[in-house]
Specification:
alpha/beta, three-stranded antiparallel β-sheet
Length: about 220
């Protein structure tokens, strides 16, 4: 279920072939590694683009465009604000001195993003997004760092969490998502780019969140 599944089916249908979904990868890095090793033809898993990954696979044109965002524990934030440090100071003006713990999902580009943007923060990796969310709710970490779709999706799907968590989107950032093929498979890479140009209808974060809500309601 989801935009990636729909796109994969559309591309397969247009090529008149059956699609076989391989979901054994436990991290996004493993998805890339699977294409690199020839275990699949096309990676479509909201993959962020990065230079290290581009050394192993060929990226398509972006089909989703996000911003980076943080999911912050409100109680820990209130403690900072009581000492005169505003959210703007903490996350924008004085990032170099941000020394709190930030949680990231292991096997994602957000490990490197966090290290670059918050060089003095403690980066804690989590094996699953669920465990990461649990950690920020109970205050084990000050904040989580990921794309705005996943961050906003937490509070959107569980509105009661808005009492404990605050979403902050870093407006100046840009985090695109693309599909990936093997470097050698130029015909498929060209075809995917053509599909994105002539058939794909671009979707924003609000569109995807609304779609997720409808899907969740229909599966209850």
């Amino acid at each position: 279920i989801g935009v990636d599944v729909d796109i994969a089916k559309e591309i397969a249908d247009s090529l008149d072939v059956k699609v076989n979904f391989i979901r054994s990868a436990k991290t996004f890095d493993e998805v890339v590694e699977g294409i690199y090793k020839g275990e699949g033809d096309l990676a479509i898993s909201k993959l962020a683009r990065s230079l290290p990954r581009a050394q192993k696979v060929h990226y398509s044109k972006p089909y989703l465009n996000f911003r980076q965002a943080l999911l912050i524990n409100r109680l820990l934030l209130a403690q900072e604000e009581s000492e005169g440090r505003s959210i703007d100071t903490i996350l924008i003006r004085d990032r170099q001195n941000f020394k709190k713990t930030i949680g990231v999902l292991d096997g994602t580009v957000y490990i490197k993003y966090a290290e670059n943007i918050f060089p003095n923060a403690t980066i804690k990796r989590f094996p699953t997004w669920e465990k990461a969310v649990e950690a920020v709710v109970n205050g084990t970490v000050f904040a989580l760092f990921r794309d705005e779709l996943e961050v906003r999706g937490i509070v959107s799907s569980s509105p009661d969490l808005s009492i404990k968590l605050r979403t902050v989107v870093l407006a100046e950032t840009n985090d695109t998502r693309a599909m990936a093929t093997s470097i050698e498979n130029t015909p498929l890479a060209d075809y995917v780019d053509l599909y994105l140009d002539v058939q794909y209808k671009s979707q924003g974060v609000n569109d995807l969140l609304q779609r997720y809500k409808k899907t969740k309601q229909n599966t209850k």
